[in-house]
Structure formats: structure tokens, C-alpha cells
Design brief:
Blueprint (H helix, E strand, L loop, with lengths): L1 E10 L2 E7 L4 E5 L6 H13 L18 E10 L2 E10 L2 E6 L2 E2 L3 H4 L5 E4 L5 H4 L2 H15 L1 H25 L6 H40 L6 E6 L10 H14 L1 H7 L10 E6 L2 E2 H4 L2 H23 L4 E5 L7 H11 L5 E5 L14 E6 L2 E4 L1
Parallel strand pairs: 3-13, 3-14, 8-12, 12-13
Antiparallel strand pairs: 1-2, 1-4, 4-5, 5-6, 6-7, 9-10, 10-11, 14-15
Helix pairs in contact: 4-5, 5-6, 5-8, 6-7, 6-10
Length: 371
């Protein structure tokens, strides 16, 4: 999968952009606050219909304008595809080959991207919410069914929490309706957990191999999915479904007292372990960085296995955060494999011999020129 062309109108600090990219490595070079990250963000938004930096559409639209338009031409093994996204303060409209999509969920997955930025260390060091978001974003790109289940799960979860609050303050007493919502949440939740386990097993396989290479076979990286259910309940969708239903029944009184849903995939977590020790708690900064790098690089192979296409890789000033050893492994891993967009303030700190024929764009105050 490659991005051939990109057109932007009134996106962030870009008035108009109409540019062709190289199929290999594209270097976005410039000082800070010139628009390098904004350009990467536009590709991310085109892929996922939302930003990794803000939840407010207005932040993406150039000042004094009402709309922003993003268009791209991507090339897949199956042929070329035109993607369009129109952003306004009222919402978003997405088109695939000039046909408007009734739901954004049918649009997501046409362009697959992996973003790696310095803050992605929070995948290891951050809160469980960060890791759940990581799983939902990445797995949602790989599977429309996963994306559908997460959307439906969040819809029912919102209804169930609202009803639990009503029960909490004695304004409702119909527990039959709570059982209906619990059953629906168990159905969607069991699909989410089962697919997470399936994809995490594959991701662990590739991550472990990469981590072992970087650590010169001194460390073994493993994953642990943390859930309220017992391990014996995780072997099938049906067993997870029954486990969630029984757990909701057992926790009913506590949930009513608290006015919220206390278990399910929205409460689960992912733990990274090196030689059986928790990386978040006991890992050094170097081990945490290697873990994050290994997971991100492993995503490339996982996405290829699940979708049949390599994703587009977005590296936002990440090389400056890596030492020579980790930088070398990263550049070797992507060389001649995936189309890459790399932001940097200087080329001097990059191992240029590991990048074959990069196309360098000089970015200055929202304008681009090819060096």
C-alpha cells in the first residue's frame, strides 16, 4: 500500500497542498512549528477519520475557514483508490472512489497506517486506557468486524451506565432491562476480547523476535492480557460470553451502588513482560523503549498478515529519541518494505546509509518544496 498523491485544502497551517510522494522513504525536513507533524497528521486523519492529537474537528481546520478537505490517491495490489474526507464543525463526510460512505466505519481500513511518535512510549508506561486505545485503533484498521463490535459495545455501554445511574438513585427498578443490556454487552464484549487475544498472540510472536534481536538474545518479551475473567473462560467466543454474563450477574449490586459498569473489555489491560518481569513497573527506560519499538515494528507484519497489504509508516521525530542501535534496527526493518514518512529537524542525526534514495521535502510555514 502506497500513497501516491496528497491534496489538502485549509488543513491546519496548510492553505493548499498538491504533492506526489515517493514509494519508499519520504523525509519531511524543517524547523519546529513549521507543519511537519501537521502533514503526518493529515495522512493519519485520512486513514482513521480522526486525529491522534485532538478530538475537536475545529482544531484541524485552518483559521477563518469553515471546512478542510483532504484527498489522497493510494495504490494497492488490487489497484488504485481515491479517498476523500471533508471536515467541518458539523461533522465529517468520507468518500471512496468519489462515492460517499453512509458510515465512517465502512471507510476506515481503506488506508492503513502505523504512527510511531515519542509519546508512543506511553503504550508501555501509560495508563491502561492508552493500551486499550492502542488495541482498538490498530485492530480496528485490520478488521471491520472488530471496529463494528467496538462501536456497538460503546453504544450499549453508554446505555447501560446511564440505566445503572437511574437504578442507583432509585428512579428505575426494572432489572429485566438491565439483564437485556448485560446480554448485549456480553455478546459484543466477547467478540472484542476473543479477537484481541487472537491478534495479540500474533503480535507477540513478531514483537518477541524483534526484541530478542535488539537485545542480542538477552531478553524475551511476552504479553499478558489482563481481564476480570478466568483463563479457562477465554478459549472461545461462547465461553467468554458466558463468563461475562455470569460476571455481570455477580457484580450487579456493586454496579448499581457505583452507577457504572465495572468489568468488560473497556476495563481490561495489556501487560508487557521481559523475562517474566513487568516492563511498566520494573523495566529500565531502555527496555521500555525497546518494547515500544518492537511492538510498533511487529505491527507492520501483523497488518500485512491480516489485510494482505503493508501499511504506511509514519515516524514523527522518533529517530532523535532512539540510540544508534535502535535507530539502525528501525531503519533496516522498514528499508524497501513499507512506504515511510519521517519528520526531522536535521538530516545529520540520521543513518543516511540505511535509507535508499529518500525523497526530501523542505517544509517552511505550511509550504513544501522538494530538495
Amino acid at each position: 500500500m502506497k500513497i501516491s498523491k496528497l491534496k489538502l485544502n485549509h488543513f491546519r497551517n496548510y492553505e493548499h497542498v498538491d504533492i506526489n510522494f515517493a514509494p519508499g522513504v519520504n523525509v519531511l525536513l524543517g524547523n519546529n512549528a513549521q507543519g511537519k507533524t501537521n502533514l503526518l497528521e493529515s495522512i493519519y486523519v485520512l486513514a482513521l477519520t480522526k486525529s491522534h492529537r485532538t478530538n475537536n474537528n475545529s482544531d484541524l481546520i485552518q483559521w477563518k475557514h469553515q471546512n478542510a478537505q483532504l484527498k489522497t490517491l493510494i495504490t494497492k495490489d488490487s489497484g488504485q483508490l481515491n479517498l476523500e474526507l471533508d471536515l467541518s464543525k458539523k461533522g465529517k463526510r468520507a468518500k471512496v472512489n468519489h462515492i460517499e460512505q453512509a458510515k465512517l466505519s465502512t471507510y476506515v481500513g481503506q488506508l492503513n497506517v502505523i504512527l510511531f511518535a515519542p509519546e508512543d512510549l506511553s503504550i508501555v508506561k501509560g495508563s491502561p486506557q492508552v493500551r486499550r486505545r492502542f488495541m482498538d485503533i490498530e485492530f480496528g484498521q485490520m478488521s471491520n468486524q472488530y471496529l463494528y463490535n467496538t462501536v456497538q459495545y460503546q453504544r450499549v455501554l453508554k446505555q447501560r451506565n446511564k440505566y445503572l445511574k437511574l437504578l442507583q438513585i432509585k428512579r428505575a427498578s426494572d432489572l429485566v432491562y438491565l439483564d437485556v443490556l448485560s446480554d448485549q454487552l456480553s455478546a459484543y464484549g466477547s467478540e472484542i476480547i476473543y479477537q484481541r487475544l487472537k491478534l495479540l498472540k500474533q503480535l507477540e510472536h513478531w514483537s518477541s523476535a524483534i526484541h530478542s534481536t535488539i537485545s542480542q538474545n538477552q531478553e524475551q518479551l511476552t504479553f499478558k492480557y489482563v481481564t476480570a475473567l478466568k483463563q479457562t473462560q477465554l478459549h472461545s467466543v461462547d465461553s467468554i460470553y458466558e463468563g461475562l454474563k455470569n460476571a455481570f450477574q455477580s457484580e450487579r449490586n456493586r454496579e448499581i451502588r457505583m452507577g457504572t459498569t465495572v468489568l468488560g473489555p473497556h476495563r481490561d489491560d495489556l501487560k508487557f513482560q521481559i523475562n517474566h518481569n513487568d516492563v511498566q513497573t520494573f523495566g529500565s527506560q531502555g527496555q521500555q523503549r525497546t518494547t515500544a519499538l518492537s511492538v510498533k515494528l511487529a505491527e507492520i507484519d501483523l497488518m500485512k498478515a491480516e489485510t494482505g497489504e503493508y501499511p504506511v509508516l509514519l515516524l514523527d521525530d522518533v529517530l532523535s529519541e532512539l540510540d544508534d542501535n535502535r535507530q539502525t534496527h528501525l531503519l533496516k526493518a522498514i528499508q524497501d518494505k513499507v512506504q515511510t514518512f519521517l519528520t526531522t529537524t536535521s538530516l545529520s542525526g540520521i543513518a543516511r546509509d540505511l535509507i535508499h534514495d529518500p525523497k526530501v521535502f523542505q517544509i517552511n510555514d505550511g509550504s513544501l518544496r522538494v530538495d
